């Protein structure tokens, strides 16, 4: 189903800031929908109206924000690119009141949200250090992570060649609940959904 308000906001943003239109349109590509739909399907049973969710490397949040916002208490979007966060906050999703936007490096920030969130989503693991290096994992925290083998794309500094290689980047106290390989027109995305057990 199309959210008419979001559709209007996206069209307006494309018209008024055409220099970024390709980037924004790419965030709604078939490949992005396929990957993000898999994430949402896998995590919905693990959230409720009291859930606080963090999205690492959120980009515009084009798909995850509208699909998750009505199911949870709050979503915190973190990205190095403050421009995309401002676009999401002030233009795309300005009608949604339970979204927080935080510019910065997830490994350098020390946020209260890190200690209260029940679900961490990282659809951008290929853009950052291994998730086992993030120091705020806590017992019973659920995670949904994706990476890929698309080594030739700019900004992909930590691709993996297999689901097992991706698993090797998880914290040691992880239990895998769902694993999947998602074919993309440019390669393969790997998805891991699990929980921190101790």
Structural key phrases:
7-stranded mixed β-sheet, 198 residues, globular, single chain, 7 helices, alpha/beta, Rossmann fold
Return the string of H and E elements: HHHEHEHEHEEHEE
Please count the beta strands (DSSP E, at least 2 residues each). 7
Sketch the major β-sheet.
7 strands, mixed
Q: What is the residue-mean pLDDT, rounded to a whole number? A: 96
- Calculate Rg over CA atoms: 16 Å
Which secondary-structure class do the elements indicate? alpha/beta
- Helical run tally: 7
Strand order of the largest sheet: 3-2-1-4-5-7-6
CATH topology term = Rossmann fold
Distance between the termini: 39 Å
- Compute the number of structural domains: 1
- Portion of residues in beta strands equals 15-25%
CATH class: Alpha Beta
Helix content: 25-40%
So, CATH architecture?
Answer: 3-Layer(aba) Sandwich
What does this 3D model show about the protein?
By secondary structure, this protein is α/β, with parallel strands linked by helices. The chain has a single domain, classed as Rossmann fold, CATH 3.40.50. It has seven helices and seven strands; from the N terminus they run αααβαβαβαββαββ. It has helices at 4-16, 21-26, 30-43, 64-68, 82-92, 112-116, 163-167, and strands spanning 52-56, 74-79, 99-103, 119-122, 142-148, 174-184, 187-196. A seven-stranded mixed sheet has the order 3-2-1-4-5-7-6. The longest helix has 14 residues, at 30-43. The radius of gyration is 16 Å and the shape is globular. It starts with a helix and ends with a strand. 32% of the residues are buried. The model has no long low-confidence stretch (mean pLDDT 96).
